[in-house]
């Protein structure tokens, strides 16, 4: 399926707003030159000549956007979940990331990662690599070959990391510049993103250099923010001049509408206001925030404030690569937060989780995450016949159930990114 | 595989205690007449003539015991997760359970349920039916045919339920007596269990009748306890004479070493002491407790007190039938509880989750849940080769990872209950 103009027939669902999902049973999703021309109950005459992709009886939904995960950590997903963030980084994560100096190891690991990402529900992703330029370029090549659209970052770390991983400030900046020269414009679907690991790993001097590179190359930014209380305290010590943790990025021009900050579990009011004012994205990573005992981010509050929010698996803080699981976890975590922390913030609904995983995160990539006219056409075709029940279900009920049971009877049958089909073999 | 004496070769793991897992790579698990004769690094000469089941390279672990779930709710798993317990019961659960008056519907629904339970990781289960005797007997027939060992309850409800579901006290007791006469001793693997739904659904008079039946037939008991704050308050109003919610069962002789109480999220100190003193089992159901916004049970406290604790999926408060998912959820929930509620109670480890899902719940069925000599031999053979990684892992690391990723690349290849193989077709 190489054509980028076609008509997809199936049971179509997509978010109109955080609370409203449009469902069209036996509808027609029209793709013209890789973009949606809309969803129709009857196929308009003008598209009658387009090739028909017949997915009758299947659910058709927008592709899911994973806006925070770590490619090198995929190798130890599901392992070592016995520590909080800072000890986890030193015990499990940094030693694993050190291995990516070895390009043979990186090739084996990234082959697995890219293959699994290609086959899962994710169509677009914002990805951390490691500090290593060759391994990060290899990762970009592997991801380009998947057909997915991704932002990929060479990580910067010039303090508080093991000797074999830490860079000098000068070499980190220079390696980043060299990497950007190598990869900017080199790929069709795989783009670089400025990636200071997090404030504890990056000196003010290097942060300033990264701010300058971001501006020079007009690049997006990804990092971590207010994930864990010990991390937040540490940043206060490391950047006594900052008014809040987010300020330690903002000061160097690293927040804004093309920045995604993972977690924001423990953000102060001032920090939330700074994120809102700058239009910075929050990547909510509920499974990771549970597994590393970080807490639960107040996503309802961020939505009420009109902030930009998407979902992230945060592999390998989270074990699962499944964005369906991530959606279900977001709903479940919000209910526990309501019960245990703050009953003024209503739990998320499954509808809102769908919105976060599609339009919420998708907007980081442009007009992505919806089937409304003009959006890039990312779509999943879902077979839910293996989730058996004697009941007759509506299209929405079938999708709701799929969110919770994608891995227990659900099957992703086809996947399209910007109108092009991705192989699931 | 009909034989009940054989030798199983594989990478064997089982719990020696909540904190200690024994792992034997390329070991031999010996089954004699349906019971374990132990796990050996080298096969003892005296078993050399036994048939060898060669599962080299596969993980072999004890079967998992799901000690709380609702068979009739399986039909709407993953749906309607937008309410708290009491509204959820009235809106979603009771209307669905009403359908089981229709034996045709029950047959279709229980075929699906029994088939999926047979193929999942569960080897033993403690199951709620509905109030309907014919449907409950049909459920027992279907479960008997799976080869699993289960306790199944005809539910009792004589108040606070819709007209089409509620029984009169006399008819409820009489139907239960008739059902027990029908099914006691009728099946090899499927046994009745006294099942007052929960105090809000059962008058004191009926509770007393059930206590008498329990004693007369020497039966186990299952019910719900302190799941939700509104439920707990309601019980205080309904049973002003009781010293705590658990007392509203204990008063009628319904607690004890053959009773399992689901949830115990909001149990008072007095209630915990009553459960401990009577040896009552707690069925911890972490996914349900999140999805119905109930809270998180203090499982660490129950373990520290030496109480009997197992895990339950609580389908359809929980959407997933997977006991691996249940184990992972138990660990994750305990970390959130540590972070958000009480840092004096350490999070559960994956080792402890394995213990809870095997020995913890298994002991409700007798000598079940371990491969130690004399235990009934319930075993799962797990293929983890689809959970790809470039790393070399220990046997324990492979199992730890399987707990978190069973549904994302893991595969259950074979399943044995009391030494007999269960078909996974």
Could you walk me through the main structural features you see in this protein, from its secondary elements to its overall organization?
Two copies of one chain form a homodimer. Chain A is of the alpha/beta class and 425 residues long. Chain A folds into two domains: 6-61 and 369-421, Roll (Urease, subunit C, domain 1), CATH 2.30.40.10; 64-365, Alpha-Beta Barrel (TIM Barrel), CATH 3.20.20.140. Helices cover 36% and strands 23% of the residues of chain A. Chain A has helices at residues 85-98, 103-119, 133-146, 169-183, 204-217, 229-238, 247-250, 269-278, 286-291, 299-304, 323-340, 350-362, 395-405; strands at residues 6-15, 21-32, 35-40, 52-62, 64-70, 122-128, 149-153, 155-156, 190-192, 195-196, 221-225, 259-263, 281-284, 308-311, 379-383, 411-417, 420-421. In chain A, the strands form four sheets. Chain A has a seven-stranded mixed sheet. A four-stranded parallel sheet of chain A has the order 5-6-7-9. The radius of gyration of chain A is 21 Å and the shape is globular. Chains A and B meet through α2, α9, α11 and α13 of A and α2, α9, α11 and α13 of B.
């Amino acid at each position: 399926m190489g054509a980028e103009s076609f008509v997809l027939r199936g049971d179509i669902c997509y978010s109109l707003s955080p609370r409203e999902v449009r469902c069209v049973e036996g509808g027609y999703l029209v793709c013209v030159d890789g973009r949606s021309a809309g969803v129709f109950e009857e196929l308009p005459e003008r598209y009658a000549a387009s090739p028909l992709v017949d997915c009758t009886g299947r659910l058709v939904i927008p592709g899911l956007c994973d806006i925070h995960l770590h490619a090198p950590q995929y190798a130890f997903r599901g392992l070592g979940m016995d520590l909080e963030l800072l000890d986890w980084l030193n015990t499990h994560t940094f030693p694993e990331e050190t291995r990516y100096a070895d390009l043979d190891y990186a090739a084996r690991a990234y082959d697995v990662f890219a293959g699994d990402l290609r086959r899962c529900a994710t169509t677009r992703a914002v990805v951390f690599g490691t500090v290593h330029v060759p391994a990060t370029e290899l990762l970009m090549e592997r991801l380009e070959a998947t057909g997915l659209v991704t932002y990929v970052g060479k990580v910067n770390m010039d303090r508080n990391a093991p000797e074999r991983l830490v860079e000098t400030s000068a070499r980190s900046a220079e390696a980043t510049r060299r990497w950007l020269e190598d990869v900017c414009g080199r790929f069709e679907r795989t783009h670089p993103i400025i990636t200071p690991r997090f404030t504890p790993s990056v000196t003010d001097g290097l942060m300033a250099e990264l701010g300058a590179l971001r501006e020079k190359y007009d690049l997006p930014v990804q990092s971590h923010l207010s994930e864990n209380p010990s991390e937040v305290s540490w940043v206060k010590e490391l950047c006594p001049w900052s008014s809040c943790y987010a300020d330690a990025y903002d000061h160097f021009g690293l927040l804004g509408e093309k920045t995604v900050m993972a977690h924001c579990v423990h953000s102060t009011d001032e920090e939330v206001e700074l994120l809102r004012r700058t239009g910075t994205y929050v990547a909510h990573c509920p499974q990771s925030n549970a597994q590393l005992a970080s807490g639960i981010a107040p996503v309802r509050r961020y939505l009420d404030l009109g902030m930009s929010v998407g979902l992230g698996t945060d592999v390998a803080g989270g074990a699962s690569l499944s964005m369906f699981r991530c959606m279900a976890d977001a709903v479940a975590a919000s209910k526990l937060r309501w019960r245990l922390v703050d009953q003024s913030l209503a739990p998320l609904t499954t509808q809102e989780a769908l919105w976060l995983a599609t339009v919420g995160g998708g907007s980081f990539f442009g007009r992505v995450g919806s089937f409304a006219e003009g959006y890039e056409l990312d779509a999943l075709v879902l077979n839910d016949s293996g989730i058996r029940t004697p009941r007759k279900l509506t299209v929405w009920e079938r999708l709701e159930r799929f969110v919770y049971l994608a891995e227990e009877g659900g099957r992703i049958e086809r996947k399209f990114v910007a109108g092009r089909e991705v192989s699931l073999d």
